[in-house]
Design a protein that fits this description.
single chain; 195 residues; alpha/beta; Rossmann fold; 5-stranded parallel β-sheet; 5 strands; binds flavin mononucleotide; Flavoprotein-like_sf; Flavodoxin family protein; flavoprotein
């Protein structure tokens, strides 16, 4: 299984990174990982020029930045894991940039004639961390990604997140680790878990 991880925390050893580390420890050799740390990349915002829509069989964009690498890796992958802290009830800015660039770059729905979704059939999943109770923290992003998947003709495998309860206690503990490991198992069996 080819797994693409899009990691979008500005903190390389923060909560999301710690969770991701526990998850990747579980993977066996059947999982081939490509990871991008979005905060270190040159990623420009979509400017809605719709030049991407003039080329219907591949990615095309007026920006000359690192997005082409992500686009190629997404097309190569089976499963894409969006890993982000929750910021202002949604994902962090570079994750949003990537989501915008992917939906227009991949889906040729917005030109003169209706075209395809180039990444139709791929599977996506969400890993998030947050400070508020889960139902008031990641709920909007989970719903947003579910809708994003449908619109892009992707499968939505599901979401897993953990709350940082206090700055005084460590984020990672045995219970969190157990849940992270269970999510890793779900990712490895991604094609059994699709409905
Ligand atoms: C600018 C900013 C905005 C945040 N907004 C939210 C929010 O809307 N909801 C929430 O539950 N937590 C929010 N948080 C808390 C983070 O999501 C939480 O601390 C997360 O675990 C940080 O992940 P990291 O250590 O991987 O960067 C926010 C944190 C920052 C810095």
């Amino acid at each position: 299984m080819k797994l693409l991880i899009l990691f979008a925390s500005p903190r390389p050893r923060g909560n999301t990174a710690q969770l991701l580390e526990k998850i990747t420890e579980v993977f066996d050799e059947s999982v081939e990982i490509t990871r991008f740390d979005l905060y270190g990349m040159d990623l420009k915002s979509c400017i809605a020029c719709r030049r991407c829509q003039k080329v219907t069989d591949s990615f095309h964009c007026v920006h000359d930045d690192d997005m082409q690498e992500i686009f190629d890796a997404a097309l190569e992958s089976d499963l894409i894991l969006f890993a982000t802290p929750i910021y202002s009830f949604y994902c962090t800015p570079p994750m949003k940039i990537v989501m915008d660039r992917l939906v227009y770059g991949m889906c040729k729905y917005y030109g003169e004639t209706m075209g395809p979704s180039l990444w139709a059939g791929k599977t996506i999943a969400l890993l998030s961390t947050f400070g508020y109770p889960e139902e008031k923290a990641s709920d909007l992003l989970v719903e947003g990604l579910r809708r994003y998947a449908k619109h892009n003709k992707l499968n939505f495998l599901g979401a897993y997140g953990e709350r940082q309860r206090s700055y005084k206690e460590p984020f990672m503990n045995a219970e969190v680790e157990k849940r992270a490991r269970a999510f890793a198992e779900k990712l490895m069996a991604y094609d059994d878990n699709l409905n």
